[in-house]
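ugh ok fine here u go
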Amino acid sequence: MEAFDRLPDEINHLVSEFSSIPVFGTLMAGLTQYTFWLVVSSIVLLIVVFAYVRRLSLVPHGIFSNVMETAINFISNDMCQQIIGPTWKKHFPFLASVFFFILVNNLIGVIPGMKPGSGTISTTAALALVAFIYFIAVGIKQHGAIGYAKSLAPKGVSFPLNVLIWLIELISLLLRPITLAVRLFCNMFAGHIVMGSFALMVTLFAEPLLQEVTASNILGALPAVAFAGILLVIYAIEIFVACVQAYVFAVLVAVYIQGAEAEGH
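structure:
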């Protein structure tokens, strides 16, 4: 069918649209699509935070305040207290900022026509680097630079096995920002490509019917209905994935903070 024949070219065009191209052509070459939507997401996040602070009260009123209160309690209880322990309060602002920043960026990117700020490796790498510096600084503050380096090796293991394990732990430590960045980027990028692909199939099969209403075009447009149903399911899944990825990133950072503060393995 003609729709399937055109699909590879359309997919290639779709993927190229997810590259970091300028928003306004050569007028503002430094402002890419991802940078633009990253700024938009940051502004939206600030508006949400200020709106919540203005409505802050002992007993939350309204859907917005209750949703925000539930999210904050979830972060403080399930993400901070249960993972980090007694020192959770001093890390709560950082973890909450990371979680909400990624969440808003992910959800903004789900809206048709918009791009997720977290859909480019440069953004996720920057987030991962900030998280890496943070929990390394926590470990150094807790144990001192030499003490933190020593804490990577497990206690009770004799030489030279403890040196080998220390090297393995060091490599694992250095790989953490890479895994954080790649995991978030791949999930968001892949999800949007899948959504875009099914949206293209809906368009390609429905296009002849929109140009001319005939019996053959109506019959040919029937697959578009099936693809549209699948697209709605994928859309719902992508919203869920956007929330899960923000949670996973923040939880992993909390685990790394807890490990940095621990006396040793």
